[in-house]
Design a protein that fits this description.
Layout lengths: L93 H8 L15 H8 L6 H9 L5 E3 L7 H15 L4 E4 L18 H12 L7 E4 L13 H21 L3 E6 L8 H10 L10 E4 L7 H15 L6 E5 L34 E5 L19 H8 L1
Helix pairs in contact: 3-9, 5-6, 7-8
Length: about 400
C-alpha cells in the first residue's frame, strides 16, 4: 500500500479562507468551555443500536454557493517540500458507473459562505467564456470554511461570523480547524500553533464561536493519518490534545458534529488507522461523531465508503458514529500514476449533501474547494480558473 497524504497546501492566510481570516477585529471575551486535558481515551464498547444518519430527516434544499476551503492548501507556507502521492484507484466499478448517471443530490441544508476566491472570480469575470460553467458547477455549491491561521485574538469572532450566518439561514456550516502544531510533518503546509498548550487555548477560543446551531467540524486534516513522522511520545501528546479538542467543541455546542481524520482508502490500513483514531478520542461520544476521509484527495466515493466502514468497524465506539467524505475532486478517481498535485483528467465528484442514503455515511462534503490549486496549476491555495474549468466541464 502506498502511503499518501491528503495533500493540503495552504498559502499564508490566503488559501480559500478569506472569510475566516483576521480582519483586524479585537480580541474575543466569550467564555470558554472548561474541559481539562487528559490522556488519550480508551475504546468505547460498540453499541448494537442501528445507525441513523444525521441528515436523513432534513429536507433537501437548493445547493448553496461554495465556501472557501483548501485541502490541497492546508497551512500558511509556500515551501515546495515533496508530498506523498495519492495511490491509484481501480477502474470504475459498475456501481460507480451507475452513480455517474444519477442526478447530483441536493445540498440538504448545507451553508454556502458568501466570501470565497471562486465567488470573487465569478463576480469579476462575467464575460469570461468559462464563467457559466464555473459559476453553476462550483461557485453555486456549499463548501467548507477553513481556519488555518493561528490568530488567537480573533478566532472566536471569525468562527461566530460563519456559524451565526449559517444559523440565520437554517443551514449547516462546515468548519475546518487546521492549526495543530507540526502539521504536515514540516511539508508544504507546515505551520500551526507554536505548541500544544497554545493549540488547546486556540481550540477553546474556536469553540466559543460555535454558537448553538447545527455545525459540522472537520477536525485537523492529516493530524492522525500523517502521524507516522512523530515520535511515540509526540504522537501520544498530539492525540491527547485532539481528544481534548473534540470534547471542548462538543461541550461548547452539543449540536456540533465533530469528525476525526481517517486519511483515505489509499493510505493506512483500516486497523492501523482505527487504532490511532481511538487514541485521539474518535471512539468516544464525548468528543466524536465519527471520521472523515479523502480530504483534498481523489479516491472514488465507493472506495471511501467501503474503507470508512472498515475503519468504523475496527474503531468500535457508539453505533451512531459515522463518516463524511470529501467528494470535491474525485469524479474520475485517483490518477494511476499517483500524482497528487493538480493532476490532469480529474473531475468534480458528487454534490455536497447530508442525505447520502448510505448507512454510516453522514455526508458528502466539498472540503477542498475545486479550483484552488495544489501548487502546480497555480500558486498553492489560490483559485485557478483554468483548473476549475477543467474539473467542471
Amino acid at each position: 500500500m502506498v502511503a499518501a497524504a491528503s495533500v493540503v497546501v495552504a498559502v499564508g492566510t490566503v488559501t480559500g479562507m478569506l472569510s475566516a481570516l483576521d480582519e483586524g477585529r479585537g480580541s474575543d471575551e466569550a467564555a470558554r468551555p472548561e474541559v481539562t486535558s487528559s490522556p488519550y481515551l480508551a475504546p468505547v464498547p460498540a453499541a448494537s443500536t442501528p445507525f441513523a444518519s444525521p441528515g436523513a430527516s432534513e429536507s433537501a434544499s437548493p445547493s448553496q454557493k461554495s465556501q472557501k476551503s483548501p485541502k490541497s492548501p492546508k497551512s500558511p507556507n509556500t515551501s515546495n517540500s515533496p508530498k506523498k502521492k495519492a495511490s491509484s484507484s481501480p477502474s470504475p466499478t459498475k456501481t460507480e458507473q451507475r452513480e455517474k448517471q444519477r442526478p447530483a443530490p441536493a445540498s440538504a441544508r448545507l451553508y454556502r459562505h458568501p466570501d470565497s476566491q471562486v465567488l470573487d472570480w465569478v463576480r469579476a469575470h462575467g464575460g469570461d467564456p468559462r464563467h457559466a460553467v464555473i459559476a453553476s458547477r462550483i461557485a453555486d455549491r456549499p463548501a467548507a470554511v477553513w481556519f488555518a491561521d493561528f490568530t488567537p485574538s480573533t478566532i472566536t469572532a471569525r468562527v461566530r461570523a460563519v456559524t451565526s450566518a449559517g444559523a440565520a439561514q437554517g443551514r449547516v456550516p462546515v468548519l475546518v480547524p487546521y492549526a495543530i502544531p507540526g502539521r504536515d510533518c514540516g511539508g508544504a503546509s507546515q505551520g500551526g500553533a507554536p505548541g500544544l498548550a497554545a493549540y488547546d487555548a486556540w481550540i477553546d477560543d474556536f469553540a466559543a464561536g460555535l454558537g448553538s446551531g447545527k455545525v459540522v467540524v472537520v477536525l485537523e486534516p492529516d493530524s492522525v493519518a500523517q502521524a507516522e513522522c512523530l515520535s511515540t511520545g509526540e504522537r501520544s501528546r498530539r492525540f491527547a490534545s485532539l481528544a481534548r479538542a473534540g470534547r471542548v467543541l462538543k461541550a461548547a455546542n452539543p449540536e456540533a458534529r465533530v469528525y476525526y481524520d481517517a486519511g483515505h482508502s489509499g493510505w493506512n490500513a483500516a486497523a492501523k488507522q482505527a487504532g490511532w483514531l481511538r487514541q485521539a478520542g474518535a471512539a468516544s461520544a464525548a468528543s466524536s461523531d465519527g471520521i472523515f476521509s479523502n480530504v483534498s484527495n481523489f479516491h472514488r466515493t465507493a472506495d471511501e465508503i467501503a474503507y470508512d466502514r472498515r475503519v468504523l468497524d475496527a474503531l468500535g465506539g457508539p453505533a451512531n458514529l459515522g463518516a463524511v467524505i470529501d467528494t470535491s475532486r474525485n469524479g474520475n478517481g485517483a490518477p494511476a500514476d499517483g500524482e497528487w498535485c493538480d493532476p490532469a483528467g480529474r473531475k468534480l465528484g458528487r454534490a455536497p449533501t447530508l442525505n447520502t442514503g448510505e448507512p454510516r455515511i453522514d455526508g458528502y462534503l466539498w472540503v477542498k474547494l475545486p479550483g484552488e490549486s495544489d501548487g502546480c496549476k497555480g500558486a498553492p491555495g489560490t483559485f485557478t480558473p483554468s483548473y476549475a474549468y477543467e474539473l467542471a466541464r
